[in-house]
What we know:
Layout: E1 2-5, E2 12-15, E3 22-24, E4 30-35, E5 38-44, E6 60-63, E7 66-78, E8 81-90, E9 95-101, E10 104-110, E11 131-134, E12 137-156, E13 165-173, E14 176-181, E15 193-200, H1 213-219, E16 228-231, E17 238-241, E18 248-250, E19 256-259, E20 266-270, E21 286-289, E22 292-304, E23 307-319, E24 323-330, E25 333-339, E26 346-347, E27 351-354, E28 357-360, E29 366-377, E30 386-394, E31 397-403, E32 408-416, H2 418-425, H3 441-464, H4 469-484, H5 488-493
Antiparallel strand pairs: 1-2, 3-4, 3-12, 4-5, 6-7, 7-8, 7-12, 8-9, 9-10, 10-15, 11-12, 12-13, 13-14, 14-15, 16-17, 18-19, 18-29, 19-20, 21-22, 22-23, 22-29, 23-24, 24-25, 25-32, 26-27, 27-28, 29-30, 30-31, 31-32
Helix pairs in contact: 3-4
Amino acid sequence: xxxxxxxxxxxxxxxxxxxxxxxxxxxxxxxxxxxxxxxxxxxxxxxxxxxxxxxxxxxxxxxxxxxxxxxxxxxxxxxxxxxxxxxxxxxxxxxxxxxxxxxxxxxxxxxxxxxxxxxxxxxxxxxxxxxxxxxxxxxxxxxxxxxxxxxxxxxxxxxxxxxxxxxxxxxxxxxxxxxxxxxxxxxxxxxxxxxxxxxxxxxxxxxxxxxxxxxxxxxxxxxxxxxxxxxxxxxxxxxxxxxxxxxxxxxxxxxxxxxxxxxxxxxxxxxxxxxxxxxxxxxxxxxxxxxxxxxxxxxxxxxxxxxxxxxxxxxxxxxxxxxxxxxxxxxxxxxxxxxxxxxxxxxxxxxxxxxxxxxxxxxxxxxxxxxxxxxxxxxxxxxxxxxxxxxxxxxxxxxxxxxxxxxxxxxxxxxxxxxxxxxxxxxxxxxxxxxxxxxxxxxxxxxxxxxxxxxxxxxxxxxxxxxxxxxxxxxxxxxxxxxxxxxxxxxxxx
Length: 494
């Protein structure tokens, strides 16, 4: 351990690791650069926003059989939100990074210069779902983003200051993770840096010294406390939110998108107020699910871009220890949704394979847009945001791929009965809303065709056996017409 006085304020600065190049003074936020036996003030960096993450400096654990300790972090902001990069030191002297974004975690280790991406395309050439090969393995691009460093804490392996720009491409292959980092590309260093690793769950890292739920809620955000109330800077209506849990708030009264990640709340944009969707649940509702208490912190209404009758509501729930959880209310029932931290084994337009199980696409490809949002989110939600979607199904479970201009997200959902939702939220009778097009049109068309075939099988033989041919065909035709009529709108979708 190396101790030194901060060149700016004189406070003690600790270097716990011999491989750390800088340490950030916790008193004045100066970036202290260690060079040989002297230290220099490299400039100041902003304070990190204390958020929902249970990780902190000093947290220790085991990854791939190697013990590590968290020494520092940088916090990065991109167009839609924030994420943390935790700097870790292994007991064998190596270093790595634990990315922490929206409740998902990825462990990556830097590759040596000899394995650099010498034939990598330019940063601007990467797009979501593009294939990228490294080390004989094909990865799929899932995220392309440019971000700015807004804060730092503890020790870091390199010097950086306020405004440091990170240009990164994230790629996946099942649970394997590859980052192509263009942040330090220059004329003299033309190749990006590669980081290799995998998606992880905190429960599998044998972590010690995590923050508990009470500590997270008490310290999160600029405004301290377990909750916060902010007056909307646009209309003055009260905005209730969990400080630190979510930094983007959509005002229910005026549809303004408000950023609360800084010292002042800023109105990012204001949408024309739309009629509120009369969802069954609302922001602030609580649920007890398998002994865990969850709270709805945000809701989003979505609809197909070419079919306003096909709409659904997505509820974002939060628990300080468990993180985030999605519940979807659609025309054909309720779904419990898990955002996948890995990619399916393979997929095409017609099917997808996950864990050896093949899911087939029963629905047409479609695009969807946000028509209404309210509450708090850990990324920026805007009315009009669009994604293209593909859904696959197997034995009642669904896989869904959502693709935007910058990222691809996969989720897995299973249908749950209304009675279970009633039990979770302590509500009375819950009736699933039905759109003008009726319930699941594909299922109804299948049943109707079976019924039509049944009528034909019964009536045609009777007709040729001497029964009234005209009457038999009349009643069969009438039944066909009556069944098909309410399904017409469903067929128009396809």
